[in-house]
Amino acid sequence: MAEECSVAVGVRIRPFNDRERALNAQLCVEVDGPTTILQTPPEQAEAGKNKEPKKFTFDASFWSHDGFEVDAKGYCCPAPGSRYADQQLVFDTFGRRILDSAWEGYHCCLFAYGQTGAGKSYSMVGYGANKGIVPISCEEIFKRIGANTDANLTYEVMVSMVEIYNEQVQDLLVPPRERPKKGLEIRESQQLGIYIAGVSRRAVDSYPSIEAVVEEGTENRTVGSTLMNATSSRAHTVLTIEFKQVSQAAGQQGQKLSLINLVDLAGSEKAGQTGASGDRLKEGCAINKSLSALGNVIEKLADKAMGKAKANAVVPYRDSKLTRLLQNALGGSSKTVMICAISPASSNYEETLSTLRYADRAKRIKNTASINENPQDKLIRQLREENEKLRNMVGSGSPKEGETEDLVHKQAEIAALEQALMEMQKSFAERLSEAQKAGSKKEKSLDTKLPHIANLNEDLLLTAKLKFAFKEGVTRVGRGSQEDGDANQPEVALQVPGIHQEHAVVENTGGAVTLKATDPEAAATSFVNGTALQPGVAVSLSHGDRVAFGQCIFVFVEPSKGKVTELINSGQVSYAAARKELQQGEVTGPTEEELKARVVCLEPRAGHSYLKDSSLQLMLCALRCHTTKSYEVVPLLFVCEASRQLAEELERKAREAEEAKEKAKERQFPTHVCSGRFGIAKTV
Ligand SMILES: Nc1ncnc2c1ncn2[C@@H]1O[C@H](COP(=O)(O)OP(=O)(O)OP(=O)(O)O)[C@@H](O)[C@H]1O
After folding, report:
1. Which of 14, 15, 422, 537 is most buried (CB neighbours < 10 A)?
2. Would you call 117 a catalytic residue per the annotation?
3. Closest ligand 1 atom, CA of 64?
4. Residue 159: beta bridge partners?
5. Best CA proximity match to 675, nearest among 625, 628, 622, 631
6. Ligand 1 centre and the CA of 123: distance in Å?
7. CA 467 to CA 476: how far, in whole Å?
8. pLDDT in the model for residue 605
9. Ligand 1 pocket test target in 12, 89, 121 with most atoms within 8 Å of CB
10. H runs (alpha helix) in 532-643
11. How far is the C-alpha of 680 from the C-alpha of 684, rounded, in Å?
């Protein structure tokens, strides 16, 4: 039975963040019932644009900007009489709907879209006591299963977790070193639809077991391997919960299968605006490629739904891994929800408008959802038949010229189908025991009873995800090689700039731990509590000490004195404080006046020649925050407008700067390039 249904869309507005508050950000969003209203900021109106507010109506518009209280557990709930939408309300509106559909046997997909820092992860995963849709849904699944009283009905739940990073699909339930180099292939079979060949599927039988799998996947995210400076926004993360209901009741034997896809997309801002270069730019382009492909798919599907495109027009799903994977969710047979996270600040007006337009298009998409009541036996039989057909195609004589590639492709398809068949024939009990073995193997590999360091990250979700233990004797810290199985790999291998091959050594003597840099250059980039190491001098480490190697910041943990979570949750240690401490320890940054004097070069872009004062403030603020030796590029997002007066002032300052240059020669500042949408300013 097929049912036509639209993609459900919700918008959520977060509170101002610290930076926006510091810059006296202007609120430019309002909600009225399910409608989101975007006010045109004065500078946009000045530029002659239509200043009428823009209104978009969705299934829900969540006001999470203000009006909340924080309870004793740290949970943000609505203050009496306020319209604040808390995590529970968002789950009740959309998460519950997804689970109800899964119970009926529909495939479902819920994804979060929005610019970096707009609140996608907050809605999907949540932070601390403010659990998001993913953990609440997992908990609810096992609550519902636990409430079942029908002895003939059993449930099987399996989880897989992948990320799409630089257009490669990576299995997050496999440690980075054990993954195939080019990631996993997305395949399509008549019977299985779109699937990821060879992806790990873990059987789970309780909330703690699913939580452990998600935790393991989160630890294995790309940020884990490229370390601390990458943030969660670099990759798209897809958690798939395979939910099967098996009925043994007489006359009703059969099963319903639902795939629940929960997708946290990468930040949607454009790479060009962030001033990124090198690997970051490559990531940015890959994110852009998949997100713009997603935009094209949404546009085409919306056009089809509105009769603007022909019903048989090709939808460009194959343009990126992300759209291929979401093929069923968009325009397919799945029940789909999209949550768009937006910033409330007028400085993000353009991005917010683009997100709202995206969302407006997505709500027009029509899917044809159908219940998946395919008995396993039938599916296995059909898969065998599909495989047989493929074999016959491959087997008929030697390939003709030009057919070799096709043959290789078909053989890969056969192998993938055979693997899928083998997987399908395993019993759930077998899978559970395999999953338990995988879990215990992991526990053994991480000995946190030993003194260790755990990473600190701007993103709390990624904090303490990377730990290195110090056994009795010497542990080497150094630049890890990219090659697998390198026997000379240091125990603490950090693949980030500024780390030497042999950077430092940590010595554990009966529980007393010291750190020593191997040469003067390494000493200058190794810090304990913000102070650089002295060449050849060993420093004792104590519980809670911050240890930094280049850009990687860790906290030292003595298990006999407490856990890393206690240090973080109590506020004793934080990324922000550690970063600040480091900046003070490094070459002191220039003052605002000095910085202003150093903004000397403006490259006007067509129609938008000059920076506006607020943009300059923002830029100076960003420069100051980032003026450390370790930053090469200042990531900056701002929209600036014409201001002749300011440009004249800048030119004057440039002249003054030239004069001051000679005087300032004794102090060397790093060169930064800040790129905004309309102007580029350099410091010298
Ligand atoms: N509804 C909300 N209520 C309170 N705080 C929020 C809300 N939404 C987001 N935040 C806060 O805003 C910050 C950024 O949110 P979040 O990490 O979810 O952004 P994101 O869109 O996932 O970013 P990224 O693309 O980098 O992963 C976090 O500190 C988060 O706690």
Report:
1. 14
2. yes
3. 1
4. 202, 241
5. 622
6. 8
7. 14
8. 36
9. 121
10. 564-569, 575-585, 592-598, 613-626
11. 13
SS3 (DSSP) at 657: helix
Q: In what order do the strands lie in the sheet with 539-540?
A: 492-493, 473-478, 504-509, 512-517, 539-540
Catalytic site includes residue 585? no
What is the DSSP code (8-state) at residue 513? E
Calculate how far, in angstroms, residue 200's C-alpha sits from the geometric centre of ligand 1: 29
Is residue 215 exposed (0-12), middle (13-18) or buried (19+ Cβ within 10 Å)? Answer: exposed
Q: Where are the domains of the chain?
A: 2-370, 376-429, 447-482+489-585, 592-683
CA distance 237 to 163: 4
Considering the candidates 10, 61, 101, 120, report the single residue annotated as catalytic.
120
Answer whether 645's CB lies under 8 Å from 679's CB.
Answer: no
Query: What separation in angstroms does the CA of 299 have from each of 330, 331, 620, 653?
Result: 11, 11, 38, 47
Nearest-angstrom CA–CA distance, 36 and 309: 28
Q: 255 labelled as ligand-binding?
A: no
In the DSSP assignment, the letter for residue 91 is I
Please, which pLDDT band fits residue 475 given cuts at 50, 70 and 90? very high
Neighbours of 551 (CB within 10 A): 19
Who wins on pLDDT, 540 or 501?
540
Answer yes or no: CATH 3.30.2010.30 is held by domain 447-482+489-585. Answer: no
Per-residue pLDDT of 3-51, as tens digits, reads 788 899 999 999 998 888 888 889 999 999 999 999 988 776 666 666 7
Cα 121 to ligand 1 centroid, rounded to whole Å: 6
Task: Please report the beta strands in 521-596, taking only residues with DSSP state E, as ranges in sequence order.
Answer: 526-528, 531-532, 539-540, 546-549, 552-557
pLDDT, tens only, 573-620: 988 889 888 877 654 444 445 444 444 333 333 333 334 344 444 444
pLDDT tens digits, residue range 359-385? 999 998 888 888 877 656 666 777 777
Q: Cβ atoms within 10 A of the Cβ of 550, count?
A: 22
536 annotated ligand-binding residue: no
pLDDT of residue 676: 32
Q: What homologous superfamily does CATH list for 2-370? A: Kinesin motor domain (3.40.850.10)
Q: Look at ligand 1, atom 6, and give the residue with the nearest C-alpha.
A: 14
Find residue 203's DSSP bridge partners: 158
Cα(500) to centroid(ligand 1), Å: 35
* Whether the CB of 382 sits within 6 Å of ligand 1: no
Closest residue by Cα to atom 8, ligand 1, is 119
**Is 376 annotated to bind ligand?**
no
Residue 657, pLDDT above cutoff 50: yes
Give CA separation, 166 vs 163, 462, 664, in Å: 10, 19, 42
Asked if residue 504 lies in contact with residue 547, where contact means CB atoms within 8 angstroms, the answer is no
Percent of the chain at pLDDT above 90? 34
Tokens (6 digits) for 549: 């190697």
Give the closest residue to 237 by CA, choosing from 108, 351, 124.
Answer: 124
pTM, to two decimals: 0.69
Q: Whose CA is nearest to atom 14 of ligand 1?
A: 117
Q: Which helix (H) or strand (E) holds 5?
A: strand 2-6
For ligand 1, whether the C-beta of 341 sits within 6 Å is yes
ipTM over 0.95? The verdict is yes
